[in-house]
Amino acid sequence: MPTLSLYLSPMAASQSLPSFRHSLRRRRLHHPNVSSTPLPSTSLYLKPTPTAATTGTATATATAIATSSLSAAAAGSFPLSTDTASAISFDELDRLLTAKNFRQADEETRRLLIALAGEAAQKRGYVYFSEVQFIAADDLKAIDDLWQKYSDGKFGYSVQKRIFEKMNGDFTKLFKKLGWMKKLDTEIEQYNYRAFPTEFIWELTEETPEGHLPLTNALRGTQLMSKILSHPAFGDAIEGETEEKREEKVAEDAIGGLKKGLKSMSDRLFKRDYSF
User: One Pfam family for this entry, by name (predicted)?
Assistant: First the structure.
């Protein structure tokens, strides 16, 4: 049997390779479902691995998105703490006083004081006298300014402060002057606290006592009222009252000096002469 030679000449090899490729293309055309298995990948065709820069950029982007989401949630979804200035609004008090709804305005004032005094006061539902110091002067003055504005200067803490000074710090006299106490129908002159809320005056009239509102509960004692009226927010009222008293004293001294001067002149002019 003749021996088959496995040797191909260079020309035969160059001719047989295109024939093989052509045959392969024909098989793919006639059998489209036959998948061609790719050649094993070499190091030249490996998929690029993420570099440090790429990883860092992706991490930074994810962090930025997360931070942005948290910021948006904090601004909209989550309620602000009541101990922040932005959480306290005086709009409702302004609205009630504008409408001359003094009864509800007094309740709103009480609510604001509790909110401004801190978390302990909020849980308790009322303010201890020792917590008044935690209320910012600007906030307390804002409340007072609204009361004065919508009452033509008749209501407010600073108004009560001036009256308190004129009463020489006597709370009984102050409460009588504010109309918080009523005279009893007895043979002996006696006073008692008015019943809340029916016996208080919730209208602004000529008969309404000056400083009648806002109310401060005096049934637990006078320390709370004392701390409110002595708050730094009303330092201007104290200075104004002191200046007023100083001017009154100067006027009294001037009048007294004038009287003494006139008396001395009168004595000189009409001095009796007993020399005859």
Answer: GUN4
Q: Across-strand partners of 192?
A: 182
Beta bridge mates, 183: 191
In a domain, 172, yes or no: yes
Checking 224-229 for CB contacts under 8 A at 24+ apart, the result is 224/127, 224/128, 224/129, 224/132, 225/171, 226/129, 226/171, 227/129, 227/130, 227/132, 227/133, 228/132, 228/140, 228/157, 229/157, 229/160, 229/161, 229/164
Residue located via tokens 């979804």: 77
Token pair of 44, please?
């030249």
Answer yes or no: pTM beyond 0.90: no
CATH code, 94? 1.10.10.1770
Q: Is residue 130 part of a domain?
A: yes
Separation between Cα atoms, residue 223 and residue 229, nearest integer Å: 10
Structure confidence by residue, pLDDT tens digits, 16-35: 444 444 444 444 444 444 44
**Structure tokens that stand for 180 in this block:** 């918080």
Helices (H) and strands (E) counted in the chain, each on its own, are 10, 2
Q: For residue range 128-185, list pLDDT tens digits in order.
A: 999 999 999 999 999 999 999 999 999 999 999 999 999 999 999 999 999 999 999 9
Cα distances (Å, whole numbers) of residue 75 to 89, 91, 115? 17, 20, 21
A 10 A CB-CB count for 147 gives 25
Domain contains 62: no
Q: What is the pLDDT of residue 11?
A: 43
Residue closest to 245 by CA, chosen among 168, 174, 155: 168
Quick check: 260 and 166 in contact, CB under 8 A?
no
DSSP state of 268: H
Number of domains in the chain: 1
In a domain, 72, yes or no: no
